[in-house]
Each structure stands twice: as structure tokens, then as C-alpha cells.
Amino acid sequence: MDLMTLLIYFALIMIIPIYAQMRVKSTYNKYSQISNSTGMTGAQVATKIMQDNGIYDVNVEPVKGQLTDHYDPRSKTVRLSEDNYYGTSVAGTSVAAHEVGHVIQDAEDYSFMRLRSSLVPVASFGSNAAIFLIIGGMLLQFSGLMLVGIFAMAAAVLFQLVTLPVEFNASNRAMTQLVSSGVIRNDEEKESKKVLNAAALTYVAGALVAVLELVRFILMYVMMNND
Predict the structure, then answer these.
(1) 227 FRET partner, CA 20 to 30 A, in 43, 194, 212, 220?
(2) Distance (Å, rounded) from C-alpha 99 to C-alpha 58?
(3) Which of 82, 99, 108, 191 is an active site residue?
(4) SS3 185
(5) Would the keyword Signal be found if you checked this record's keyword annotation (predicted)?
(6) Is 99 a catalytic residue?
């Protein structure tokens, strides 16, 4: 890989996630200023959708920070950032519905969610140890160590790839539930889709960068063994 190609490559892997983050923040900020027509808070939306689906054993709690919303399947808790928990914006409504999408996946034992959960231990090891193993193998000219690092990185990349259908499915469920429950109306459906699509872009960007890095190290390993 010549210097110009290398510079272009590093520019891409820096620009892609930065663009995705800028997109989600600008979209979120725009629609967090627009109230939904029903006046329901994010907490109320989350509770209503769960009750509509016969789910009563999951708590909804506020959490500090912006875009810190998540579902914790271990404690059966949906945590919404305070603005989304207490607020009535289209953005907050969309985010709350997305997190409840994960709750419904959990209740239905959604296959990709189950697979992602099973990959957590190896993915955690891969994301923490891979780069050290790979660099160690390169410095020591020990291709076997580098290969172990590549397999560790591949496990982390697989986790990110499996995350994509989990997130897309949660967003699709969110839109279906928002419409069927009457939480959003008319133009709000289009606005909610924009919020959810922008959020999904961050996962796509992360997975793309991870795949590019994995491919780069695989090529380096091949070149090391050809020398």
C-alpha cells in the first residue's frame, strides 16, 4: 500500500464515523425541537408500546447524558436520556420506541439478538486484545501471533455486523408500533424515520470501518508471509 493510498484510507476511516456522528446529532437536535402531536413523553411512549404488546415486567428509567438511551436485558430496564424521558419531542418519541423495539425482540427471543448476546465475551476480548496481538506480531515478525490477533479482531467485527440486523429490526418495529398505537400522526411518520435512519447510520459506519481495518490487517499478514 503506497503512501497516497494509505493517506486516503486513513482519511476515509476517520471521515466516515465523523460524518455519521454529525448526521445523527444534527437530525436529533432538529427533531428534539419539534413536539409530537399527542404530547406524550418518551417514558409514556415506551410504557404504552410495551403494554400494547403485553409486556409489564420492564422498567423505564431516566439516565443522564445525551443519546445515552439503551435497553438493558439483564435488569429488564429501558433507560432513556433525561431529555427523551421527560420530553415530548418527535426525536425522543422515536428513540423511546426504538429501545422498546429491543424489548420486544428480547420478549420474542429474536435470533440475531440472541446471537449478538452470545458473541459479547469473544467480541469484548477481540476489541481489547486484537490490536496489541497484531502489532506485537508485526514488531516481532511473528506471523502466528498476528494471525491470532486477526481472528480476535474478526470476532469483534462479526459482533458489529450482527448488530446491524438487530438495530434495523428494532427501528422497523419502532415505526410499526408508533403508527399502530397512534403515537405519531401525518408528517410525524416521515420525521420519525429520519431520526431512526440517522441513528442507524452510526452502526453502518462503525461496521464499515471495522471491516476495512480487518481487511487491511489481513493484507498485511499476507504480505508478511510472502516476504
Answers:
(1) 212
(2) 12
(3) 99
(4) coil
(5) no
(6) yes
